[in-house]
């Protein structure tokens, strides 16, 4: 495949940085702290795409960078007005013809979000914990479709690739915001989930000094320290800034038996802004994570999770080490013509040891067990070049963005399997017997390269907003049984796109409709030795968005109809093989409201109805699943979270209280639709106090208490016919100092 690399060399060529520095003054917002900016550029509200300081403010005009992974902007509390995720340009959310939600830094702080899966708990159309408690992965489903395995996770506009058992983990403390774009997005991003994508915006340097330190303690022996510091670099003339974010956590889990949820994370970042037109930001991270390699409990017949944990502390642990280095470069050639280049290199290395209970005797006294040992490594590079131009043709104003992106990963994997001594279910002698480490088999390797070319035009004429994009992708994949022995090669190409039309019915009120397509390559061969066709999908979406003028209240309603075809299903002619002949269809609607009512007082409301069914599929026993609901996906969900900060005139000034309710409707426990999961309602809570209300000398000190599932609802979740437990009531207390 060497013929592809000259193209890669061309893509990696960067624009020369030059120019003189200028200075400016402005006000930006960091969490709850207002600070004065001092650096090149303009932080004042400006036209879309005009750049600005690297921090979202409440003015509706600033952005982390002006596009292509820079993240949302125009943020006040929980409300964001502008995002780049839907168009790769700074576009108001109400003008994007697709459903978008933004979880801002203030919301992440208030809920003290600990995982990426937790971040989307109050977002419409998205669910987590389909398999119960599982800290190993950030498993998220949007409109019924898996985001993780369909490569729908992005960071700073670049895909985060995972494969096999290994997926980079996202630390939410290092995120400035999480954006959820629902529906197919292949017209801009290439292969992925038909349900949508998640885009995590990394914390970036700002040209103001600031700092934060936290100490947290909570349930299950949880102890954690966080820090986030940064500002301009002395002696740089206001052209350079840094940011250093990190945390260290040592924690157990409700499973006990020595299971851990430990993490170390450090993320240095650096920005050079030699003039108002040019920005170069270096982004990096190093992280280690230790979790259980299995979180499951042995299942009794009849869809019941037993009290017997499958793992064993004598042979346990999923240790993952990952690092990333990359940059975001932006240069305004003219005020209406800008070039951007985003690049990242990721490395992830995993070692996992686990024990399974594969059977229990009739007397319910002995469990027979086996073991597994996994070692994997994943190295990936992603690159996106884009050119954005703004111009007019007669009465039509255009914002055009075109680009070429490239992604490559190489996965190596070694597996070993063995037997473990029986478990005495009476004494539960976990950790008391020696368990041998299985011998690893030979290494298998998989490589994939993707090249995509895309073009988009956002055209405004009168009160109409037309968004039209198209993209062509080439995907090359090779599989090796050993490092040097090729088993199969598979090449795919596809054209995808989106067309959307909105109309400004009144100020802030925009109804819209859109049509979009997507595709996902599928690895493997059918019974005739032919490579599987890619899975393809399309969506029709229509809705209305309303940003109430003069307020920070934003609402949206959308209906959608998604069909995904050519998914892999058992081959009815030979159940030992699969065929790309299945299809699923997801229909439903979503309603969302986000409001900042006063400083520290915010509200989110989200309701979703989704009906996702097999159109054509069979089980591994050959039974038809046509018309059945996909297991583990609730048809109805509702979530709302409210915070209230007592005003300065109140005797309770400094106190902030909040609470959330999450209703998860019933779903089927298996794809055969024989048993249902019961509906469950969970409650979360927040109590916080800012000590500056006692005395101004305590400015910056804050105590915060978060509770999750505070009424300790004990429930299990089943999908694919397997059931697992969920996390019980959990409390985390935080002491915070910001300056």
Descriptive key words:
single chain, 739 residues, mainly beta, 22-stranded antiparallel beta barrel, five-stranded mixed beta sheet, 41 strands, 57% strand, disordered N terminus
Explain this structure:
The strands form 8 sheets. The protein has a 22-stranded antiparallel β-barrel. It has a domain at about 290-450 and about 465-490. It is an all-beta fold and about 750 residues long.
List how many beta strands DSSP finds.
41
How does the major sheet shape up? 22 strands, antiparallel, barrel
Integer average pLDDT: 88
Q: Assign the structural class, choosing from mainly alpha, mainly beta, alpha/beta, alpha+beta, or little secondary structure.
A: mainly beta
> How would you describe the shape?
globular
Distance between the termini: 53 Å
How many helices? The count is 4
Protein name: Iron complex outermembrane recepter protein
GO cellular component, one term: cell outer membrane
Family: Belongs to the TonB-dependent receptor family.
Membrane topology: Multi-pass membrane protein
